[in-house]
Amino acid sequence: MFPAKRQRLDKKMHDLRLDAVALNAGPTLAYLTGLHFHLMERPIVLIYCPDQAPVLVLPVLEKAKLEQIDYPLEVYAYPDNPSAWPDIFKQAINARQLHDARLGIEPQQLRVLEYHHLRSVLPESAFIDASVAFSAVRCRKDDEEVQLISKAVAIAERALQATLLQVKLGMSEYDLANELVIQLLRHGSEPHLPFAPIVASGPHGANPHARPSQRTLAAGDLVVIDWGARWHGYISDLTRTFAIGPVGQEEQHIHRLVQQANAAGRAAGRPDFPCSIIDDAARSVIQQAGYGSQFFHRTGHGIGLECHESPYIHAENQQLLQPGMTFTVEPGIYLPGKYGIRIEDNVVITETGCQSLSSFSRELITLY
Fold first, then answer.
1. Which of 138, 153, 177 is the C-terminal boundary of a domain?
2. Taking every annotated instance into account, which residue ranges of this chain make up the domain Creatinase N-terminal (predicted)?
3. Residues 230 and 327 in one domain
């Protein structure tokens, strides 16, 4: 484990009175170890106790990944025969004497498969939701992590710029989304994108999570494009809204409102203020203009190894912003049956304020 991350986790474990934590393949395991595994039919579990080497249970075919590590690690590798797995889990857990222990887990990540193997060896142990500990450790990015997110942002912005050159009347949302995926890969994104791009034109844009369809781009449409890239595991998540040919004054007016709300949200962020201050700043612009009910989602969410993680930017979140927190600012206005407009940036809290990591134009660009 990386020393600084390990120290922060130790403190959070002490606060929750945890004897150990158990993690399966996923972002937190990767964050703490630098090891990347995908969820599959073979279980992978990391067991960590403060002041002791982590214990890793994994299939033999994944052992080659361990050549990169430079810290102590006790490895228990099992063959493909599932009948051998229970005994390997028993050996690994007994190595740390965790019976009657308080074991921290991630309920949103831990599958029944891994839980079954842990519980079968630890019938008397308490399985504790340690999500708050993992979130607290991961939500403040160090300089290297911010640089990786910035690189993911740059890749995404270059990919979109290349994609926009291919836009033409009669092109389907589906084809535009596919072209964007191609450009993301060409410009350096890892193949495992943070999410499938959203391309939503005309009335489809009123659905914030619309899936690209065979609807074709028509003159006078607004098109919402929500996309992101991944670089060394870290992601970007951006949104811009474009015009297909000239659009009406109402569309231009509402786009300016969303633009102003986005700017207000980004300007409001600063250390030691609650996350809600950003939501309040962005939302008030839209509410005062009479469109409050058409902005019906939170203003943002944390980004890092996952597309949605802590901190969450909404009116009820009193969590204090701290330097190193990275998240989105993405106000929108959605008019059912007509169109939607959203502008989303990626930002980081600094020692003195809030810095935008994204720079793609926020103006209403006409594509055709």
1. 138
2. 6-139
3. yes
